[in-house]
Amino acid sequence: MAGAPTCGLQDVKEGKDYHFPTEEEAVLAFWTEIDAFRAQLERTKGSPEYSFYDGPPFATGLPHYGHLLAGTLKDIVTRYAACTGHHVERRFGWDCHGLPVEHEIDKQLNITTRDDVLAIGIDTYNEACRAIVMRYSGEWEKVVTRMGRWIDFRNDYKTMDPSFMESVWYAFKQLFDKGLVYRGFKVMPYSTGLSTPLSNFEAGQNYKDVSDPCVSVAFPLDGDEEGAALVAWTTTPWTLPSNLALCVHPTLEYVRVRDPASGQVYIVLESRLSEIPGALPPKAGAKKKKDAGEGAAAPAGFQVLARFPGAELAGRTYAPLFPYFAHLKQHGAFKVNVDTYVTADSGTGVVHQAPAFGEEDYCVCLASGVISKGEDLPCPVDAAGRFTAEVTDFAGQYVKDADRGIIKWLKEAGRLVDQGQLVHSYPFCWRSDTPLLYKAVPSWFVRVEEIKDRLLANNRQTSWVPAFVQEKRFHNWLENARDWAISRSRFWGTPLPIWVSEDFSEVVVIGSIDELEARTGEKVTDLHRHFIDHLTIPAADGRGVLRRVDEVFDCWFESGSMPYAQKHYPFENRDTFAATFPADFVSEGLDQTRGWFYTLMVLSTALFDKPAFKNLICSGLVLAADGKKMSKRLKNYPDPMEVVHKYGADALRLYLINSPVVRAETLKFREDGVFGVVKDVFLPWYNAYRFLVQNVRRWEGETGEAFDPASPDYGAASGSTNVLDRWIRAATRSLAAYVHAEMGAYRLYTVVPYLVRFIDDLTNVYVRLNRRRLKGRGGTRDAGQALAVLFDVLLDVCSIMSPFTPFFTEAMYGNLRRALGPDAPVSIHLRDLPKAQDAQEGDAQIQDSVRRMTTVVELARTIRDRHARGVKVPVARLTVVHPDADFLADISGPLSAYVAEECNARALEVCADPLRFCSLSAAPEWGVLGRRLGKRMGAVAAGVAALTQDQILAFELEGEVVVAGERLGPGDVKIVRSFRGGAAPADGGAPTEDAAGDGEVLVVLDLASDAALEGAGLAREAVNRVQRLRKKAGLQAGDPVQVVLCLRGAGEAEERLRAALCAEADAVADALGRALRLEQVPATGVLAREEQSLRVGDADVAFELALLPDA
Q1: Which residues are within 8 A (CB) of 1072 and not within 5 positions of it... i.e. 6 or more apart?
Q2: I need a labelling partner for 1013 at 20 to 30 A (CA). Which of 108, 128, 455, 988 fits?
Q3: What's the pLDDT score for residue 375?
């Protein structure tokens, strides 16, 4: 009706023309236009605060799929919080210090050693670092924004800001004042390429298989009557010049053996005697050496002189291998220690100990008095990994390069028992790609071991998803936590605020800029090294000055300090911090259990005796499709932005979230998986929305009214009694309740599959089965009710899905809100999510009935497929068999028309007697019962299988049965219904009935055919051809046209088709909206025409089909 009032819903494109990435760009422009993120923050100002910490990434590289996954998780949770009555501050953060930045500058300035930095000046070096820190920040903002994440880049925090660094100083001073900081030596993974120790976390980033020399070396015991020597084995010959002790296992059995050829006596672990060449006689059949004579006797092996436990060697001394530290023998060095860390799975069972180059060596030697705490430790290797002047024979050589010379020295000294090569996994520096050394370095430590009990207690106060990461991986890491070495001998970082006297007798820790200015009398504007290293503090005794120690903080200390440092606490925002700590939520990848999650927990426990967060989602690793790590060099993954520009950010978001990676498992990224989300989720969803819009516009044209989903005549208040209306509203209530419950528990991995299933039900059940109502075939009021229900449901789904798919829901809402009136929020993200409602009476029953109904439809299709019977050909009868009387009442009552139409059955029957069509049998639920019954499972399984039909029926009625002395309930036993087969027809042909079931519902189809059924099938196929021609002609659902069909021939097959169309004329007219005209197609005035054919019996019937303007 021209000029009729409308609600304003605009017509929308066909699904094939809807390009998701382009539409998302339009949404981004809309968000910018209305400043949507700021508007949301303003709207929720004054609401309860929901605090969220964003772990800071480095801006020296571009974001990858791991970053996009973490960002999507964070965005979903914080959007959800903002739409459920919370104010959520979201600030982006940048990790600005540390090795990644320094490594880039080292390459840029061709710096290879620490001395190179000192030569150009720390100020020049640090300013070069500062200049590149934010190099990719613009690209980061562009990618993060394009992914739909709302986070504040204008008010971001940077770990290099003086305010952030000052809060780090404050935190450290608090730890120092609590006695939780000390200086000591620690054997740590050490990068000679970067001249700094690394954390254990960093050391585990880059293992490689390498071939290293391995040697067995003799250590003659002092005062031994037989001149016996312990034989130690090592894969690091370069550590032998620093040897101070040997170690054996106290309880394992060792042997003293003599080499009959040389007379030399050796001591090794008996089970490792084979490591000594010639110690064991050769195995039978072994080849002789080439120089052995033809009649030469085979070697008999070494003579065993004695067997004894390793404990008997404790305290024995031996001759130093090298002279460099021989003077330490008088202080307790060069003796045999015992410890259970010695193993029998490699080497000789005798471990050479150089305490400066092995953590366990250090601990054992410290415990046995070989070295003392706080004393200088023999460590003749400099920061670049070269021997110092103490090792006179190899001074200046890189230690790994010195291996060959050391082996030669051992051989010439008569100490080399054996040598070879070993391929093993060895750690390399993750930045410089040089082999790591384990090296004792002076460092500042936080006493983590002292607060371990509080760490474990605070961990128990948090909630992790998935829980096993918290309860196992993280708990175990805390259980075995060591003191944390927080200092790094580097330049670009937050300097340790420690000023000391030359002999360390006086130590002053500074906790603020004001304190530093007061102590030094100098104005301080920046806290980086080149601004404060020159500042001195007068010594307390008036003699001399205190100078700052050389080190900077481990950047993990900075990122662990971000909860308070980002707010410049305690210098500002004291109340704000107190109100939002601990954070409600954090999320990062599984690798952060030993990184950011750990440092957050350690510092918050040490400072506040609280966890830093309440809830945590831990994601897994995104791998390439081949299961390998994503590699730019291998080009084994698609660029993230190419995927976004091809399929849209929403599709990538939903693909990532609806995957194992949200449960801390790995995801093998496949681009076709993202396309699958578009095809299987978004396009059906979009088509349901488009169908609504088309039919609302049609309804308005037919009624002359503006569509109002809240109308008392046909809106929610009108009280529609349609069964599918009741079902979809019940399902929507269930959806809202489920989403709120699961999001409250941070279980995103359960929410997304439920949402996807709901959308599938909406499109494939409600819209599909209600098409006739929605098109107005049941009258305008009935159509109005159906459209109002579909509108309300789509609006609710848009709201509920908005945190997950912010672009698509915004695009749909932008049109739907036109029907909501002028006061409707301008953006879907400025609306509250539908609140969880209590289920109404009958909700559970109707949802169960419709679920079973869809099963009935699927089973009917299965039977049709089995018999090659297309769905357009009706069947005479469909029988649904199930013992639930309520379900059968729904199927035979309000759902009957939908079942009959969808299954194309002329008659629908129900049967509560399962024995009429099938036999019953029972099978045990092995997965449930096996764990519970253990060895009794066999007898129970046999008893369940032997249940009679009467017993099975009684079990279904009563809900329990006793088998082999065990009481079993519904979840313990599966009832199987097996179709017995229909009766054969009178003419002796094959049975005309067939059935299919899922173990719960049985569907029986009467497949007997006659002329009337075949005619109905032909008429339905003809209607399908008309609809296809309408679509090809570009007609909309409400466009009225006349339809003409002209048969080309006059044979028997043509007459059968004509008779079928005449007999089904009413059904055809109902489907098309007007009668089908069987006549000649006019020569002119035709909108569309097409030559068609239909298979009738064994013949193809040709006809012309045409669409004419409505008269």
Answers
A1: 1023, 1026, 1043
A2: 988
A3: 65
CA 393 to chain centre: 54
Q: Read off the pLDDT band of 482 (50, 70, 90).
A: confident
CA distances from 798 to 242, 460, 831 (A): 69, 37, 10
pLDDT tens track for 306-329: 999 999 999 999 999 999 999 999
Please tell me what DSSP assigns to residue 381.
Answer: B
Residue 234: strand pairing partners = 215
Can you give the pLDDT at residue 295?
A: 44
At CA 1064, angle to CA 1058 and CA 1068, rounded to 5?
Answer: 100
Among residues 232, 214, 244, the alpha carbon closest in space to that of 351 is found at: 232
Q: In whole angstroms, what separates CA 462 from the centre of its chain?
A: 19
Pick the catalytic residue from 174, 470, 592, 785. 592
Which one of the listed residues 95, 106, 761, 782 is annotated catalytic?
95
Q: Is 596 a catalytic residue?
A: yes
pLDDT tens-digit readout, 72-110: 999 999 999 999 999 999 999 888 998 888 888 888 898
The model's pTM is 0.78
- The active-site residue, picked from 31, 40, 54, 56, is 56
The encoded tokens of residue 896 equal: 């009957």
CA dist., res. 443 & res. 462, Å (int):
32
Residue 592 bears catalytic tag: yes
Helix, strand, coil shares of the chain, percent, nearest 5, are 45, 20, 35
**Mean pLDDT along residues 796-818:** 94
* Arithmetic mean of pLDDT, 525-545: 92
What lies within 8 Å, CB to CB, of 638 at 6+ separation is: 671
Contact 684, 764 (CB under 8 A): yes
Q: Can you state the angle between helices 122-133 and 99-108, rounded to 10 degrees?
A: 110
Could you give the dihedral angle defined by the CA atoms of residues 900, 905, 909 and 912, in that order, rounded to the nearest 10 degrees? -80
pLDDT of residue 906: 87
User: Of 140, 556, 685, 727, which is the active-site residue?
Assistant: 556
DSSP assignment of 220-233, as one string? EBTT-TT--EEEEE
Say how many CA atoms lie within 13 Å of 206 toward its Cβ: 14
Which residues, other chains included, contact 293 with Cβ-Cβ below 8 Å and sequence gap of 6+?
Answer: none
Q: Is 344 exposed, middle or buried (0-12, 13-18, 19+ CB in 10 A)?
A: middle
Catalytic pick among 238, 596, 685, 727: 596
- Is 477 in the active site? no
Dist CA 391 CA 657 (whole Å): 58
Q: Which two tokens stand for residue 850?
A: 């419709």
Tell me what pLDDT residue 1 has.
42
Q: Which member of 208, 411, 472, 629 is catalytic?
A: 629
Is there a catalytic annotation at residue 499? no
- Strands 91-94 and 152-158 turn out to be parallel
Higher pLDDT, 545 or 998: 545
Residues pairing with 996 in the sheet: 1003
Nearest-angstrom CA–CA distance, 315 and 72: 60
Phi-psi region of 846 (alpha: psi -120 to 50; beta: other; left: phi over 0): alpha
95 counts as catalytic: yes
pLDDT, one tens digit per residue, over 163-204 is 999 999 999 999 999 999 988 888 888 988 878 777 666 787
Q: What angle do CA 163, 168, 173 make, to 5 degrees?
A: 125
